[in-house]
Amino acid sequence: MAKGKKKPPMGVKNGLLLALSIFMIVSSVLLAGYTSLMNWTPLADVVERTDQQGTVISTSNAVIDEDIKTPEAAKGQTVNFLVAGIDYNTTDKTAGVSRGKLTDVIMLVQIDLKEGSVRALQFPRDTWIGTNRSSTGKINAIYGSYGISGLAEVIYDQFSLTVDHYVTIDMDGFIQIVDAIGGVPLTIDESFTLEGVSFSPGTHTLSGVEAEKFVRERHSRSGGDIGRIHAQRQFLAALFSKMKGLSTSELTSLASVVMNNVTTDLSVGTALSLVQEILKMDTDNMSFYTAPGTTATANNGQSVWRVLKDDLADILNDYFRPYTEKIPMDQLAVDGIVGGSTGYDVGSATVTDILDGNTGGSEDTSSKAA
Q1: Burial class (CB in 10 A: 0-12, 13-18, 19+), 5
Q2: In 225-364, alpha helices (H)
Q3: Which range in 37-46, 49-58, 60-69 is most confidently predicted, on average pLDDT?
């Protein structure tokens, strides 16, 4: 693979750090854009079509439907990415557990080019979207049946959020990236064990396998899936801190690992334009939000996350529709269910907040029934 001989401009290292710690897409953009621009072809997410016996009969690259992309009036002002972390038919060598194509990490990441900020909306994996969409009624089962483009359509249909591009990374790739930087130091508050890997309170340097367990565990955490979301925020901040100590050459060496494990529909031209914008941004202008809701039991017996439409509508209108028409709650097609138990103040947090130890939000023991 040919590499350019020009020295990267000042600031590239910090851009790499920031992007990799927020979401894997921008890391692939920055790393690939500066180390192998001329020869880089992004890996596309592959859609497989099977017959009734499950045999693959054709494959094609995933494409986001033009009808669900940002309207012309807002193009050049915002760009929306659907980012998904996938248990992609992987077998964990430590635990020996085979997993299917479930998405444990789902985020809509918006780059506000006009304001110079990044906003990430996290969707809990158990978010209820209805059994007409998936067999379980949960959002994390969509990818396995319909691919990343199908997941993008659900995000658009249910939440009226446009999607311009996608990024996916599977758990094997996640493990390889963490190992490639020598692990990530992290302060852990709770004791738990997942698939044979145990954690105890204190500061530990997590290997790739340990990091994968840390960001996936929910059953032993306070708040369940919401506790996991805060843990994911915490891990991204710890990753940022670790990356600060790496040299530019060490960061550059990660390019092949990232490029071989991240799929995206970004073009080289779009990647380069985003590089320039990301390098200007400050951690105070990079924020995490979560689709608000309550724990609940669906009519099919599934334990789910019931989205609170009124609260969600406020977040979407206030933060994710800066230059487009606001959409009232009653126009959201969220498939609601009756009832709910514990509500959680999921809260928002900037990257600066998280680095200071505040991931945002806390448990709210009040019930928020429909």
Answers
A1: exposed
A2: 225-244, 248-253, 255-259, 268-278, 309-319, 351-355
A3: 60-69
